[in-house]
Every structure is written in structure tokens, then in C-alpha cells.
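Reopening this one. Same input as before:
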Amino acid sequence: TEVILSLGKAGRTQVELQDVLGRPVAIIHEGMMAAGEHRLSVPLERAVAGIYFVRVIQADGSQTVRVVKE
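Same output, byte for byte:
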């Protein structure tokens, strides 16, 4: 599964996969990311079916993308 993220500015970025209760499941990326669009692979191969969230955290805020594994 892939998600497309759009970052307004470059900076240190953490991208985390969370379950429906907000608990961390995996760290997808941790480090510097450039501004612009990014395609990231979400590791859902071993996850059970359900709703997950990809949370992107930077110094100036965060955004969340919903992902469903069927």
C-alpha cells in the first residue's frame, strides 16, 4: 500500500503508522524530507484487516492520512 504526502516545507519529519486507537504500529520514515510530494510505502503486509492512520509530524504541525486494509 502506498500513500502520497504533500509537505509544505522541508524539515525533520517523522512518518508513523498508527492503529485505530492511535497506538504506534511502525515508523515509516524518520529524518529529513524535502518540500513537495512524496510516495511512501505503508507496511501493512502483516497487519490485520482494519483502519490505520499514517501520521506525518514536522516541527510546525502534523497531518494524518487514513488507510484501510481489507
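So the earlier flakiness isn't reproducible anymore. For the record, The radius of gyration is 12 Å.
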